[in-house]
Each structure stands twice: as C-alpha cells, then as structure tokens.
Amino acid sequence: MRWLFVPLFLLLLLSRAGADPRAAVEGYQLQNGMGVLFKPTSQSGSVSIRLVVGVGFSDFSCQDRQLPHLMEHLFFSGLNGGDEADLEARMQALGGQWNAYTSEGDTTFVIEAPAATQRQVLDLLLEVLTRTRLDTAKIAATKQVLVREDGGHYSHLQRFLDHQNTSRPGQEQLAVELGLACTERPEVAQLTQAQLEKLRSDWYVPSNMTLIVVGDLDPRLPAYLNRTFGSLPDHTTPERRELPSMKGPAAAMRTLNTGLFGEGAVVHWIYPEPEEADGAALDLLQAYLSDLLYSELRVHHGLSYGPWSERAAYANQGFLSLNADIAREDQDATVQAMRQLLDNIREHGLDPARFARIQRVARAQLAWSTPSNASLADYYWGALGDYDGERFPNEDRRLAQVSLQQANAAARELFKGDGYLRIERPLLDDDMVYPLGAAAALLLLAPLGFALLRVRRRDDKTA
C-alpha cells in the first residue's frame, strides 16, 4: 500500500496549487475488489463520502422492486439494540450527517463529515453495513416509513386510475405505455425477511462497491481502508436483470388528470433519444431547446413563465422533452407554438449564433463554477459508468468537440418522428365549481322539497 502515498501526496499538492482538474482522481481497488476513488481538494476541514453499491430497483421484478429501498432504510434502523435516533446521535457526535438513496442502478450512502473524524465516520458506516440485525419489528416499522414516503396506502381507486393510464406524470406515463416502467406502484407488504437477507448477502459485497472520498483527505486513509473495508469477504454477485426495451406503440397524445379542479396545465412533448446519439450533442441540444423555449413561449408569446427542456431515462431508453407550465385555456396555442418551433428546426436546423452562444456558456460554466466537495462527490457518483480506471471524461473537451453539423444531425434524428404529447391538467376548471355546486344543491334540495310538498298535501286532505 505504500505506493499509494506518493500519487496521493502529489494530488494533494496539485489541489493546493489550483491545478487539479475535475477529471483527475486517484483510483484503485482493494485486494477484495472494492473500488476506491480519492479526490483531494483545497477545501480544508471537511470530506464528502459516497459509498455506491451496485444494486437498485431495476435488479428486481415489479413485485419486489422495493426490496433494495427497504434494505437501505433498514441500515439506519439502529445497532446493538438501539434505534434510529441512537444511530443518528452517534453520527452527530462525530460532527457528520448522512443519508442514503436508492435509484434504478445503485444504492448510495451519502456522508458529509469533518476531516478530523473521517475514519471514525467510515468505522460507523462499516458497522452499519456489517452489524445491522434484521427482525420482524424493525422490518414492519420500516415498511410503514416507505408507505408514507410513497404517499400513503395504495388504494383500489389509485390502482384503477393507474391502469387507465391517466394518473401519472407525463414522462413516467409514457414509460409505462412503452413497457419501460411498472404499471402499478410497487408495494412492500409482501416483502419478507428472507428476501432481505438474501439481497444483503448477494449484493453487499466489496467487488460490488465503490467508495468515493473528496476533500481534505487523511494521508492514513489508504492503510485504514486496506485494514477495515479491505477485510470484507467477497464473492460473485448474481447476474443483473436485463433491462426492458421499448415495446410500443403508445398513444400519440394523452391527457393526464392531476386533480378535480384547477386552472393550470403542463404540456410535455417527449421524444425518444436515438440509440447511437452522442451524449454531448444531446446535452447541448437540450440546453439550446431550453433557451429557445424561454425565448418563444415566455418572451414572444407570453404562454409560459418557465418552459424548459430536459433529458430523462427509463431502463436503457433516454428521452428528451419540451415542457411548459401554462394556463389550461392556452393549451392549443402552446402546442401550436411548440409545433412551429420543431418544424423550423426540422426545416432550417439550429440557429448557428444561438448554438455557439449555448456551447460557449456550457463550457464557461465548467471554468467559473467552483464545485464543493459535495458536488464533486456527487459528480463522480453519477459519472462512475464513464470512469476508465484512470480518469473521468474531460467535460470541456467533450462539449467543445460537438460541431453545429453534429448537433443538427442529432436534432434531425431526434425529431424525425412526431413524438408523444402528454398534457397534465385537472379534470375541470375552476369555473365549473359554481355550476356543479348549484346542481348538487338542486339534487339535494329537490327530494326535500318533494317530501315537504307531500306532507302539505296530506295535511290539506286531513283538514
């Protein structure tokens, strides 16, 4: 392990001199296969730690999809007979704070801590991973936490609405229609302790973990990790599930109900990304479209205060969307303005001056933004798939290499179809409240009036 001290020391010197680009890290594997990434920075006194475990929602069927999420929460349920509050108090005593997140592809533990206690914080994390005991009471209590996180009990009405394809947000709804996402909200009631123990045994092994430490690094960290995390036993993980592919067809246009009454709506015009499209070209195209939507829908037409474009992914399929929050009476005008915008790109391509400006801004942001330890750690977490064993991609070079011709080719391929229009809005506008209220009052009062009339007639006959 001594050879690690030289490059680590050099990285520390470079970071102090301000010559440490984001792409440069010190990465290696412990003897048991666990990945380690170090990034010294000039921000003294603190570290950001990410432990990324390669298991997520997509490794399980729709029925068991919540297993890794439930396991993540159980790791915070307490140690040695203590509860969650006792565990949190131990972390606070070290001056740190922590959380964890489960995504489609991984479960990640996120820790911010003082540099002085970084090894003690890692001790506590290791203790949580290896000594957390599962029992019926803990599992039942944690299941209730997940139910509340997901918005409460999954009612028969909500299940019915989900099957009608009208109750989800726009992009998620399209993913369901295309076979890329589950048709029902995953539940936790049926998950068992045996399943959780198997998940932990199968997936929480060193060769399926990567530890990222960014900030004021303790020079003794490599030796410490070799002695602690490096002693964990390893074995081969199960084969990961094959991700679904688009099955289509999906409806070209669909209105999604977001409530009973309201004056607002959200328009999503969604396009599947081409399989071989260049990621940097799509990033710049997405930024270009956000700028164009702002100019057209807000400034020129006054239809939306904050229109935006975004990229998202479900399974192995990426999507790029144009989005606008609008008044519901402006729906047709907004769709028409978006259609004209897209037709202009199809016919004339991207505006060279706007594209050059967007590209320049995107590159400048890399230069003038000063990432914190936390944002750097999050970047490495999100970009682990692009790490080549020595460096992360040079983002500035990646953006600079995209030509206008490449961006136009990506736009033509992306927009060659009609895409999918999803419009979120309440079932009725607010103006319908009074007519419906009057109708309801009439329905309630009519029987009462009829009954009073019958009583009066009976009294008249008696008299």
UniProtKB/TrEMBL annotation:
Keyword Transmembrane listed: yes
Transmembrane segments: 432-453
Domain (Peptidase M16 C-terminal) ranges: 191-360
Location of the Peptidase M16 N-terminal domain: 42-149
Keywords: Membrane, Signal, Transmembrane, Transmembrane helix
One Pfam family this sequence matches: Peptidase_M16
Signal peptide positions on this chain: 1-19
GO molecular function terms noted in the UniProt entry: metal ion binding
Family: Belongs to the peptidase M16 family.
Name of the protein this chain belongs to: Insulinase family protein
Species of origin: Pseudomonas knackmussii (strain DSM 6978 / CCUG 54928 / LMG 23759 / B13)
